[in-house]
Amino acid sequence: MAIAATAKLQEQFDAGLETRADFTIDQPRERYGAVDHAVWDQLYRRQMALLEGRACEAFIEGAKRIGLNVAHVPDFEAVSERLMAATGWRIVAVPGLVPDRIFFEHLANRRFPVTWWMRRPDQLDYLQEPDCFHDLFGHVPLLTDPVFADAIHAYGRAALAVEERALPLLARLYWYTVEFGLMRDARAETGVKIYGAGIVSSKGESLYSVESAAPNRLAFDLDRVLRTRYRIDTFQKTYFVIDSFAQLFDALGAGIAARLGDPAPLIAVEPHAAGDVLASDTVYTRGTREGWLADGDV
Ligand code: HBI
Ligand code: FE
What we know:
This protein is α/β, with parallel strands linked by helices. It folds into two domains: 1-144, Phenylalanine Hydroxylase; 166-298, Aromatic amino acid hydroxylase (Phenylalanine Hydroxylase, Orthogonal Bundle). 44% of the residues lie in helices and 9% in strands. The protein has helices at residues 7-14, 34-51, 57-65, 76-87, 100-108, 132-139, 146-160, 167-179, 197-200, 203-211, 222-226, 245-260, 264-268, and strands spanning 90-94, 111-115, 182-184, 192-194, 216-219, 238-242, 283-285. It is globular, with a radius of gyration of 18 Å. Bound molecules: 7,8-dihydrobiopterin (HBI) and fe (iii) ion (FE). Fe (iii) ion binds at residues 130, 134, 138-139, 179, 197-198. 7,8-dihydrobiopterin (HBI) is lined by residues 1, 94, 97-98, 100, 103, 113, 115, 130, 170-171, 174. Fe cation binds at residues 134, 139, 179.
């Protein structure tokens, strides 16, 4: 994803927030106000209540294990200590989205970049850029799961070897798994559980992704995902469902190396629209497409 100098990033540079060469900063704890802590507490309580029974066990356990169940923005060093003990990962504070290669470099060294600032109360239900709640609550709990942690580490390493022209394909894979992935779970009423960070950090999509009849839910397939476009400003038209984190590990490491070593064939073909269902798809639920934006398919 090309990193425009986002308004938020510029605002911070103007405010004298210096970043190191790897775009990391020390968590500026003195910059959190009572409102920031209140927003964290409100979002944490609301999402955990929604996610019981909807998110995979590893997420629920992970969130508690790293100590996110506090009424204030967590201390990044305290979270890193617990995370390090679990899987050798730690989190590093960043001002926001960082350049792709920098991001991959951190993941390849078991460092997860976490935006330090919190959204405003009027952005509670949605904001375009990832904030601290999206990154820390959405992405970090699953890094306590050894297999998922290895999958993200493998992704970082494989991504560093990918050519610039194939980065949009890589972003699709990350989007349909790490951000908006579902996992099969026979014990769940709907047969699926949530693991994607973009879903668990969103009130609306925590419900929509597992309970709405509108979207498609298809078995995860690496080539299919690499060829499927996505929108960043609506709920997903299609969710891809993995069987296990072991399957994700294979796809994010060896899978990327195999398929994007020479990306030419995948770049040459016309991508599928986000809402397509193909004859070759394993369909768990075929969406009613209800409420989809009338402006055609992405
Ligand atoms: N930077 N801080 C941050 N967080 C991300 O999730 C992120 C990023 N830079 C690039 C990036 N993600 C993309 O490469 C992935 O979404 C594929
Ligand atoms: Fe994210």
